[in-house]
Amino acid sequence: NLKNQLLADHGHNPLMKKVFDVYLCFLQKNQSETALKNVFIALRALIYKFPSTFYEGRADMCSALCYEILKYCNSKLSSIRTEASQLLYFLMRNNFDYTGKKSFVRTHLQVIISVSQLIADVVGIGGTRFQQSLSIINNCANNDRIVKHTTFPSDVKDLTKRIRTVLMATAQMKEHENDPEMLVDLQYSLAKSYASTPELRKTWLDSMARIHVKNGDLSE
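Given the sequence above, the corresponding structure tokens read:
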């Protein structure tokens, strides 16, 4: 049946890709507040029914979804920010349940990567509106009784703390872009904060290496 077709290869099949692209299209186009809220509800149902699509195999669909939801966490409308924050929390929480309440590493990593991309793509990301959304996500974790005695609330807190570190360090980097030594120090502290996520640690170490080569500091 259709559900089995959609679930083939952990949801990484042409049919699911087409279905997911329709949802994604709704997020990428300007919508009314009411339409967006309905899209968020529909996405919850999709994540709930087809979790392996987002938490198994390739990370492309989870990545694309995190990126679009995070954009709405910076919306001018507080109601949309709240809904987007709650949807992102749902994605994390569902990931945690999917692993048998062990971790939500997949979503954690994709959120951090998406934030790093958004810094380059979206003007004003990291301002008061976005910080409020991070607080909503933290509050959701702290008030969720079912996961109260698990590692989940502290893992969510760690994620929001890492996001704030990235945003702060990026703002400082812009201030010191003409001071190579300060720039490298900032990138090094950012790389250190990613000890548990090698892909991101490598990204910042590569960036540091490029600065050293550019400045002729080959011993570094």
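Residues 2-215 form one domain. Try to locate this feature in the token string yourself.
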